[in-house]
Amino acid sequence: MMSSSLTSAAGGSTTTISAVETVTGWHVLKVEGYSKTKGVFGVCGYIYSGTFSVDGHYWSIRYHPDSNSKKVADWISVSLYLNRLAGDQGGAVNVRFQISLLDQKGEPVPSYTKTTFHSFPSADQACGYSKFIKRVDLESSYLDDDSFQIRCDVTVIKDDRKETNTVELITVPPPDLHRHLGDLYASQVGVDVTFEVGGKQFKAHRNVLAARSPVFMAELYGPMEEKTMSNIQVTDIEARVFKAMLHFIYTDSLPEIDENDRVGMVQYLLVAADKYGMKRLKSICETMLLNHMNTSTVATTLALAEQHGCHGLKEGCFMFLRSPGNMKAVVKTDSFQNLKSSCPSIIDELLVNVAP
């Protein structure tokens, strides 16, 4: 959301321009096996949610089952934590955030929905509610099969003020290069290279591919064989993944992905992004995998993070596995057995980072 105001200084031509922009995101922490978390961590101990990104900043929800202060021992505490991983922007972050207890239908409980404005001066800072809900109230009314959910909505507020000697009365439209390139790809006008992928053909523009990927630049304009070829075989990427990557190359965004296929598709896209040196797409895939992490996907995600140098994603996997019960559930999965065989070196590191 963008709003602006112009305020002229009396007796002069100086003008103050104030533009306020907000970016919003949300995340849900599901606490399964609530009874097993009581009395385990002690006062100030906490469980992290998965890391989620809003406006380039990385956040987690902290759940304190035994409160965060001896003065409120009968309460459960919840807070929002700013945790900068690789790629974060630095500096103070002004936010409005809302923490809600969700009922069994997944709707916020009004009496346990709380909103706060806060300025995080730096990384490794938390802000929240020591008295979020009394333990007895949670246990008597809001547990569902020994589980409950907390939702956190985060709105980052950016205020950009500057003074100028003239007032620009012309509104500059937002960047639309991605739309024009997307239209170019859809029209297929001027395409000059064809990729054969999984029995399907994809036509594209050499110069656009080369501008977006250093690997395509080397393949299509370097000394490699593909420089003079109009048809190129791709054997190590699925057709649907290659198509999604081309969509990103032209539009700088991902296409619509079916919810049931999202994690698997993003995992394959991460591998493709790493192969073609597309750092932005790779980072987007890492963030999406962090936000959709669960006990059935974390082992495969950890293997990908290790194999493709995704340090922030690997640390996010370790954070998830530190939560009580998660590690025990993961070791029973087939994907964990595959992890042991495909990345045996990660097991020792996993024990060091996750074991109490």
Automatic annotation (TrEMBL):
Pathway field: Protein modification; protein ubiquitination
Classification via Pfam families: BACK_BPM_SPOP (PF24570), BTB (PF00651), MATH_2 (PF22486)
BTB domain span: 191-258
Family annotation (InterPro entries): BACK_BPM_SPOP, BPM1-6, BTB/POZ_dom, MATH/TRAF_dom, SKP1/BTB/POZ_sf, TRAF-like
Matches recorded under CDD domains: MATH
Domain MATH span(s) in chain numbering: 24-154
Entry's family note: Belongs to the Tdpoz family.
Protein name (database record): Uncharacterized protein
